[in-house]
Amino acid sequence: MSVRQFTIFGNKYRMGSYILLIRLSCSVKLAFGRFQCGTLITFPRGEYLYIGSALGKEESTGSPLARRVIRHASRSEEKKPHKIRPALLQLFSGNDVAGNRNRAPSKKKLRWHIDYLLDLPEAEITHIVIMRSPLKLEDKLSELLDSSNATSIVAPHLGAGDTRNSTHLLRITDQKQILDLLKQEIPEMLSSIEAGYTPRQK
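RESULT FIELD:
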């Protein structure tokens, strides 16, 4: 399903994976915490994507997927949140949003690589692809997107601190091509992985 700023696959789970499409309005040099010993990395003006997941335990008060993407759409300190944030709150209304603490922009601390980019006023989330599924999809998505001629690596392993061979923050040249690829490949990807998926024991 596609609703303006969102492309959504699945509706059964409140955990899942996601891809943030990000527009950078001007070129910046940015360090990502201790990544590459704090080396400044140049990000030219243009479009980027980030692959992430929130597969934590579901709770009656909200979903890990909702909390994660709403957090991404916030900025630290008193900075204005991303413009997509109100639409996210509406999308994840009701039990998906955990209480009132997600109703106002959070004063988040920079933790993941992507936090450093999204905290910039020049960076704006323009679209989010959401996959409601308990399956681990990040490596498969990274492999798929890295093979596209519409993506390029800014720095190897950037955005993928918890994996060995993936890069989860990529530059893109054609957002429509990326969305078309995902709409074509994700349903088959989900069905093939689900065929061998065994739920974790509680």
